[in-house]
Amino acid sequence: MAAEKKKVKHEIYDEKDKRLGRRILVIFKWVALVAAIIGPFVYMFNHSWGLDLGTLAVLCGGGYLCFGPRGRTAGGQWIALLETLGLAVVILVYFLVILKYIHF
To answer: Which of 1, 15, 31, 82 lies at 20 to 30 Å from 23 by C-alpha?
Structure first.
């Protein structure tokens, strides 16, 4: 009886919430990928929208890294934040390379 009560107490989220959370993480991942890939090309035509897509890519990618499986562990939070910083640098370098070598 006490073991069942303890198990119920530690189970905060039900299965529906877990599926919703996983679905949101998958959406974050794909939004980050698409925004990062097309961002520099949009930047060539509209400066503001291109920067917004780059920002969206970093925010969604960082959200995916921080709220993903590794980011929820005790030691993984700092690693996830460093990976988010690395992601921002990679996206910035990608923008610069595309803008330097491709001219319309």
So the answer is: 82
